[in-house]
Amino acid sequence: MISPAGYKELNALLPGQVKVFEPMARHTTWRIGGPADIFVEPAGVKELARLVSWVHHRGLPLYFIGNGSNLLVKDGGIRGVVVKIGRALGRVQVCETTITAGAGAMLGVLASAAQKNGVGGLEFATGIPGTAGGAVVMNAGANGSSMADLVREVMVMNPSGDLERKKAHELNFGYRTSNLLGGSLVVVEVTCRGISRDPQRIRADMEEYLARRQATQPLSYPSAGSVFKNPPGKSAGWLIEQAGCKGMRQGDAQVSTVHANFIVNLGRATARDVQALIHRVQQLVYKRFGISLALEVQVLGED
Ligand SMILES: Cc1cc2nc3c(=O)[nH]c(=O)nc-3n(C[C@H](O)[C@H](O)[C@H](O)COP(=O)(O)OP(=O)(O)OC[C@H]3O[C@@H](n4cnc5c(N)ncnc54)[C@H](O)[C@@H]3O)c2cc1C
């Protein structure tokens, strides 16, 4: 827990950017999560550097989030400092086939900037509600492509507040993972390389992907997208459905009746409800298929 003197110091360092006991439900697409002791949305890279080195020197726990679209924050909230990389770090530039984006830019903004400039490759990202930073860390993907296919390099900040460049091959991308996940580096900027493509054809693909999402995903309820990773060669959604879990409910958390790998918040679901449902789904899938479903969503905080 941060002392009142510490809070005062931090507030003086980053005026207007620091909140105490901020409900994380406001910052996750599941609309679930208890309070963060300290929540900061830095106004720029300089402010971010000041913040991370301040936190580092005091040995406080530090967590980075983007749009919170792959996060389950527990009901007891987060002890330490949560840093949201948001719109202030979200500038997007396209030069020939290179797209450079601040980590806080939404993937949809990147995809549409690329489309307007006739740069193909990011069509798959249409409808993924994450930031560029979160997408790199998670190696977000869909329709057979993922960020790993496009990322050339990232700019990260270390706990001392210094910037470093890392090439794609240094990031160990895998299925919905990279070596940035759970680490101490914060992504500040992402550089992607696409291919030259007719903007009309890019737009047509984007519209098709979006229509498919609208038809197959429960987009009218808060969720975090796919809860479980697909086991090799299998679809988690299919396994969950076959194990009889579709529509299963715990409090206001429900295994979606539209897409069984989504758990939706019907209104007042708590993290405890979601965790109980996750556990029941894992047990039933294991009982039926002998397969242990691994979580894709990242869990933060305490009960
Ligand atoms: C309706 C819906 C559909 C979805 N569809 C897809 C899909 O098709 N494919 C897919 O892959 N995902 C999908 N997702 C999940 C999610 O959108 C992606 O994983 C996205 O990339 C997460 O980005 P974010 O900014 O929200 O990250 P967050 O959820 O905020 O964070 C995710 C992880 O990244 C870390 N992180 C975030 N930003 C940074 C940063 N700047 N520096 C360091 N670490 C950081 C966090 O600490 C956390 O561990 C979907 C989610 C929803 C709600």
TrEMBL record:
Superkingdom per UniProt: Bacteria
Catalytic activity: UDP-N-acetyl-alpha-D-muramate + NADP(+) = UDP-N-acetyl-3-O-(1-carboxyvinyl)-alpha-D-glucosamine + NADPH + H(+)
Entry EC no(s): 1.3.1.98
Glycoprotein listed as a keyword: no
GO terms assigned for molecular function: FAD binding; UDP-N-acetylmuramate dehydrogenase activity
Domain FAD-binding PCMH-type: 31-201
Key words of the record: Cell cycle, Cell division, Cell shape, Cell wall biogenesis/degradation, Cytoplasm, FAD, Flavoprotein, NADP, Oxidoreductase, Peptidoglycan synthesis
Primary localization: cytoplasm
InterPro entries per the UniProt record, alphabetical: FAD-bd_PCMH, FAD-bd_PCMH-like_sf, FAD-bd_PCMH_sub1, FAD-bd_PCMH_sub2, MurB, MurB_C, MurB_C_sf, Oxid_FAD_bind_N
CC annotations in GO: cytosol
Enzyme active site: 176, 226 (proton donor), 296
Known pathway: Cell wall biogenesis; peptidoglycan biosynthesis
Required cofactor names: FAD
Cross-referenced PROSITE patterns: FAD_PCMH
Compartments (UniProt record): Cytoplasm
BP GO terms, sorted: cell division; cell wall organization; peptidoglycan biosynthetic process; regulation of cell shape
SUPFAM superfamilies: FAD-binding/transporter-associated domain-like, Uridine diphospho-N-Acetylenolpyruvylglucosamine reductase, MurB, C-terminal domain
Family that this chain belongs to: Belongs to the MurB family.
Function text: Cell wall formation.
Protein name: UDP-N-acetylenolpyruvoylglucosamine reductase
Organism: Desulfofundulus australicus DSM 11792
Gene name per UniProt: murB
